[in-house]
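note to self — DONT lose this again. spent like an hour looking for the file last time. sequence + predicted structure for the chain T wanted, 350 res
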Amino acid sequence: MTAATRYPEFEVAGPPRELGRQIGETMREQIRGFCAAAIEHVNRTVNISQASAIDVAQQSLSYAESYAPEMVEELRGTAEGAGVSLDDIMLLQVRNQLQPDEREGCTSLAAAGRSTRFVAQNWDNDPALDAFNVVLTRRPDGKPAVTTIGQAGLIAYIGFNNKGIGLCLNTLPAPSRRIGVPHYFIVRAILEADSLDDVTAAIRRAERAIPANIMLITPQGPADLEVTIDDVRVLRSTDATPVTHTNHCLHPDLLPINEQFPELIQSHDRIHRIGELLNSNSEGVSVEMVKQGLSDHQDHPRSICRHPNDDPTHGFWTTVFSVIIEPGEQRMHITRGTPCNLPYEVYEML
């Protein structure tokens, strides 16, 4: 049987609790499956008991309530609709707090081309998570519409809004703490913004638990945000070249952090290679160039387009999906699997 090349698509609308109930009811199968698999996935790289994980989720809930009570209300509706507990849903939101040094290793970029602006990424992770990925459009009352690609049950993930913001995410190895505002709540707040200033304000007001790299295309142009638990550093291109990032700090203020953490899956090689591929065309970067770049196999299988290899810790990681987001056109191009051999399907916010 031919494998599906598109992810399931859903659309919901309404006030927070009702929005969540619709999510829980329409994606019940994927949410319940993800809840059942979440701790098993975490324990592939770090051992933690269910009781300890729930403790982190419950403590982080109070931070989330203070940061964005309407998002917690949405998750209550999601739990009700899916027939799971709020603890189960919160475990999904905090799972990267349970394994702060072992998250996805990705290659991302943002560019303003002649005809479009876009942000893009290869999402490299455990291929078992593919079964829980969905494309979801939320139309919350009184807030921007948002379309995301990610695991069912998360409050937000990679995607765009109808105000010109597009967002991709990758790991930034840096100091972390166990408890704080779960990362995905901050991502949702970013996707409710309409400018780069609003984005940075949404990040700064959160008492963050983990570091992250956030690649953006905004109405003000491309930007990369290296976010630590204490501050935010913004990287922007000074010319027409794209902003690129893998999994180590690039801002001069944060370079000492790289000496404290081991390199994550050939991060330095990947950023050199994606820059080499994208900066070779004097006419600027196009979506087609990005598709080719994210399919690159130099150093295969430890390449930008990631394949299974013999690395003892991360060898099972592959490029689960590749995504190119054009918020101005309100669409995403997504492969369900490695982009070297699978098509980019188009998903639109209608």
